[in-house]
Amino acid sequence: MAKKGELRDNAPATNDAYTGMLAISLVALIAGCLLLFLDYSQYEGKPNKPNLAPVQKAADEKPAPPVVPPNPMDKGGQPMPMPMPMQNQQAEQKAANP
């Protein structure tokens, strides 16, 4: 409660651009809900799946073998050999190119 001698701000709130945008967005939201309802009401009583002809397999077609995912722990094959030191590589190159 205000004490005696203090001024009170009794000015009414003003409507600015943000209040207008709030009203426009409310109208757009209501219009969107109305259009969604009108679109949904067209589907009442209709089957969910289209009527398609069943796919027939060829007589000689075998089912595909099951796919086995690779084991992440399997490195596959032999490990790489240890790298040769640079001195040996240079000596081999000199021996190969006389």
How would a textbook summarize the main sheet?
none
* Beta-strand content: under 5%
**Strand-pairing-aware structural class:** mainly alpha
- Rounded mean pLDDT is 78
Q: Separation of termini?
A: 107 Å
- How many helices? The count is 2
What percentage of residues falls in helices of 4 or more residues? 25-40%
Question: pLDDT under 50 segments (min length 5)?
Answer: none
Report the principal-axis shape.
flat
Instruction: Kindly provide the radius of gyration, computed on alpha-carbon positions and rounded to a whole number of angstroms.
Output: 40 Å
**What's the SSE pattern?**
HH
Find the count of extended strands (DSSP E, 2+ residues): 0
Descriptive keywords:
single chain; 98 residues; mainly alpha; flat
Q: Quick gist of this model?
A:
The protein is an all-alpha fold. 37% of the residues lie in helices and 0% in strands.
